[in-house]
Amino acid sequence: MRPPEDPVAVGYGTGQEHRTTLPVGSDATVRAYVRLLLRRHRRAFSWVVGLQAVAALAGLAGPAVLGRLVGELTRGTTAARVDRAAAVFLAALVVQTLFTRASRLRAGLLGETVLADLREDFLTRAVALPPSAIERAGTGDLLSRTTTDVDRLSVAVRDAVPQIAITAVTAVLVAGALVVTSPLLALVALVAAPPILLGSRWYFRLAPQAYRAESATYAAVNAVVAETVDAGRTVEAYRLGPDRVRRTDEAIHRWIAWERYTLWLRTAWFPSVDGAYVVMLVAVLGAGSLLLSAGHVSVVQLTAGVLYTQMLVDPLDLLLMWYDELQVGQASMARLVGVREVPDAVVDHDLRPLGQQLLVDGVSFGYAAGRDVLHAVSLSVPVGSTVALVGPSGAGKSTLGRLLAGIYRPGTGSVTLGGARLADMPAERVRTHVALVTQEHHVFVGTLRDNLRLGRPDADDDAVRAALDAVDALEWALGLPQQIDTEVGSGGLPLSPARAQQVALARLVLADPHTLVLDEATSLLDPRAARHLERSMATVLEGRTVVAIAHRLNTAHDADRIAVVEDGRISELGSHDELVAAGGAYADLWRSWRSAD
Amino acid sequence: MTLRRLPLPDPGTPDLRSPGRFLLWLARMQWRIQTLGVLYGVAWMSAQAAVPAVLGAAVQAAVRNDQRRVGWCVLAVVVLGVVQALAGVMRHRIAVETWITAASRTQQLVARQASDLGADLSRQVATGEVVAVTASDVERIGGAFDVLSRFAGAVVAFIGIAVLLLATSPLLGAVVLGGVPLFALAVGPLLKPLERRESAQRVTLGRATELASDTIAGLRVLRGIGGEELFLDRFRAASQDVRVAAFATARVRSLLDSLQVALPGAFVVTVTWLGARLALDGSITVGQLIAFYGWTAFLVVPLRTITEAAHKWTRARVAAARIIRVLSLRRAVSPDAARPEPAGVGTPVLHDPLTGLDVARGRLTAVVCGDPEVAGRLADRLGGYVAVENGAPAEASALLDGVPTPAIATDVLRSRVLVQDKDPVLLSGTVAELLDVPRSGRVGAAEAVGAAAAHDVLDALRDLDGTHDPLDGRLTERGRTLSGGQRQRLALARSLVADPEVLVLDEPTSAVDAHTEARLARSLKAVREGRTTVVLSSSPLLLEHADTVVLVDPGRAPVVGTHRALLDLDRYRSVVTREEEE
Question: Distances from the Cα of A147 to the Cαs of B140, B222, B299, in angstroms?
Fold first, then answer.
């Protein structure tokens, strides 16, 4: 059976897949990270293995005792000897129970500690990613790694890793017991090895990718239905009901195609393993009875041997099952450690700006090789002045803004602040000078105070209140249930977009950079809220150098200078009055906007 | 293989009277494979249960040096092994099939319900609740059917072994049958504290995940302003809370694990001891002793399956209750079948009694309103999206060709009037799929994209994807990768392709830059030529191109005129030019 189309490669609309520029960890990175974890927790790991070994050894008593009993019973024995054998069996059981408890407990603790490491290592790396990498990849992919992949890996780490350690120890010991009981019978039991190894090798080569596809297509079914529900109003308005039903059925069809494929894999694999167990048991039993009649093994050896052989089935089965589970975890692990492969920005830690003059000199820039978005742009932003960037969508205004904020490195030319290249400075230093404000106004989970103190963690309550006052937000902030201690963000008190925007501005007041790049900062607000906010913003902007990417012409009107960006070039540059007088594209626009000739 | 026939062309009409009936209905709809599964399950479990007896007989024969008999026993093991392997794999196949059939049928039912109810669904239940149904409840329904074949096998195996034991040795039989369930129950008291600790752990885990997602979602802000350490420390503390809570769980769980060794183990010891005593006085053979030993060890499996089935069925009932709650929803106002036809030229298409707005047929009407919330509600009324209280519309509804909108059949209303929301939702898929909506055919996709000035959006999506045809670029859910202005223009293109008789646009260009807005305003008028269009906006660039501008103010009569004429009105000018109010 051939596998269906790969959902990831084809890109079915799961709504969750993100074509990402963030790397997925190579096998080498994953291995190196696993080795690191093992080294960190070597002692705990040895304890788990050691304790389980004792437990498993004690667990081997059963067949031995029964085998001896059978031997003695056939030869004739006494009740006292039977009782003594039972007592030994019981003692072994007690030891097995106690050591099982100890090893499982330690395995559980180890699993949780490793999981905590994984979570924390991942987020520590994620928050240190270079801003350009975040800007390009977006946060969607990182977000799904934080939630879905951490979740999937939890199953593997919490259960699969300890179980594999435990069952592997058990399997080895049971096999050892069989060898000790009768090397001849152990040799016979080996006939099961080839079918299990060959069948499993085939299965594990195909299975991981197939299960990934299966769960991706299943997630896609859920995503389609969830989207239909979520966008109910749109579905009804555009009469998309029948279309949504058709898409759901298509998604189900794709999912079931993968279910059929993985089912086929198992249909081939299960009998090969189960069959191997049967062959093993039959071989030991058949050859054993021949060896018995020839006098090469005793009844005791045969009984214990058969029982050990049967005991071997369980740990082998578990081992294969958990290995399967582990493979699911491995894919997630690769995505988690992948962020370690993002190269850090090459920066000069000693580079500091001399002064505040922002200068763009002959800059060309493109996201993809050979397709420049900006062409030889030069622009000087005088200290303390306001420059507005206007122009049609897609002309490169936002890209220019990000270059001015030091997020991207120019292809050719340079963007300098006080003579120092922004791209060569560490992000942590750039942001003390220049801040980029976008329409994305994330309110973090936490108190209002925590939300403001990002840029100045040591700010006291007076400073926080002053910042709120500066953006005209103190009044409502003091009206909140716990004032600035009120929990906001997801799960807390929801803030309206206008208030979220004020919070974002108050953050800037506290962080106090001398230069601001504003990108459509108010474009998502309704006109009335925007106007209100623009007034509070004036206080924040006062005395700072501002580059404003303006959608609304009144913002441009108030700027000291206006740069019209068209097709990646600055086509007009000057004050409002100069540009209106020049009668170019800006003048046309202004006239129609004011409609007041 | 019936999986090939899924998804079903029609999922059928479910029995929604109770969760139990719903589950039974699902079972009835797939009774053939369900029965087959039970048969395979019984064969599979029985073959396993028979192995200890054969092994015992084999050792017995070997002791007696009866090679012939050993030979037969070996053959029996082979046969049982083959039966077990084949019946096992068939049982598994059918269990998966029943799982998928039940789950996909339920998924189809929910999808059809959501498509039918549309906007009404989220008005009646929280979106999250319906999404939870598709995300987890469907799986639980599937689980109830998956376990059925194993359950049947377990019950038969248990009864079979019980009969055999009692027939051979009433004493041992009584010990095993009485004791095994007793020990199964003995674990019970530990399950409650385990569940409690697990749910406490889930709470801390939820908190940690929330903090992590929150930090990632605001990562641009963090990297742009600072505060990474603040948030990392907070996350580390939450992550360590999870670890501590998990330790508490691990303690109970390890105890449970060790009990699962101790309890069945105690049984095996008891049975071995009693059995050896019985063998000593000759009441049972050595072979039977071995068989008893094997059975006592084996019985754990069917018992665990029976407990699992009980657990899964309880969960499935809860899931079914949630599912039938969603499937039982009906439209809040059931419209009698008023199907108004477009009336003659000269009469207004739409009339809103609350604001006094009249929408002229075939013209581009711009509505200016100082309060965006009032404007939003006006748009809702024009589209007939009226909040319902106690079965009646909450406020005076708008009239379409003289007929109140709630009295109009939904399909007629939606085919005549299209309201584009202030924050329109883009459905995921390719751009071509986005623009593939029911349409009049008058406006092509390329023309609509051009009129909405959305070419650069298509180019950006295409560059992201590396596809050649701009229509093949992909949107993620809700178009989150796009900026607000880009989303608005794509949504406008979609509305223009649909080309409805009446198009109501609520702030369609609020996030679009002035250059593009000016271009768009001109082409909008051209594309909608001859059709009725209402634009709620305060942007002069749009207002200038409207045939009529209406200034709407609750409690006052509407003022009608052209943009230029109305500019003389202070009230109007202050809204549209955004001059500082005096």
Answer: 22, 19, 40
